[in-house]
Write a structure and sequence with these properties.
elongated, mainly alpha, 0% strand
Length: 164
């Protein structure tokens, strides 16, 4: 699932690069600006950012503050498991909220079109619930992996360095 998400994000980023390059060449060389290019670039950027954010949840590279004292961070057992899963549980809650709100927002977009490109805004707004669904799936997979590692007595997957 993360491989497909990454491929889609790379494809959309390539499309974003192509649209922006086309606009620059047309404006500076041909002196014929393309009216829809800025809008399309913005929509592509929105999708790329949210797909990248979902992948950061999968790889546990999302923003997390480590506010626990060093003694607690170096603990073992259930306390360590609890401290390690708190960021994933917070991400899970936030993305569940985004999923629900994003579905509603996408529904309102069905009746709207972009000014210059005439794209249905539901296609743009759909990035929010797609991000929510992907991030929920990745968070649940991370939590299950942590639980299985804990039950097997293995160390939990390493977390990225936290801000201090």
């Amino acid at each position: 699932m993360s491989r497909v998400t990454g491929v889609i994000a790379v494809f959309l980023f390539a499309a974003l690069t192509a649209v922006v390059s086309l606009q620059v060449v047309n404006r500076l060389v041909l002196h014929l600006p393309i009216i829809w290019s800025e809008e399309i670039a913005r929509f592509l950027f929105f999708w790329v950012v949210l797909l990248g954010a979902a992948l950061s949840v999968k790889r546990r590279r999302h923003f997390a503050l480590d506010v626990t004292p060093r003694r607690l961070r170096d603990s073992t057992g259930r306390l360590k498991l609890l401290l390690d899963i708190i960021p994933d549980v917070c991400v899970l809650g936030f993305t569940a909220f985004l999923l629900v709100q994003g579905i509603g927002y996408t529904r309102t977009g069905i009746f709207r079109t972009a000014t210059n490109s005439r794209i249905n805004m539901a296609l743009v707004y759909a990035a929010i619930p797609v991000f929510g669904a992907l991030a929920i799936a990745y968070s649940v997979m991370n939590l299950l992996a942590d639980y299985r590692a804990f039950r097997a007595g293995r160390p939990l997957e390493r977390r990225p360095p936290a801000a201090e």
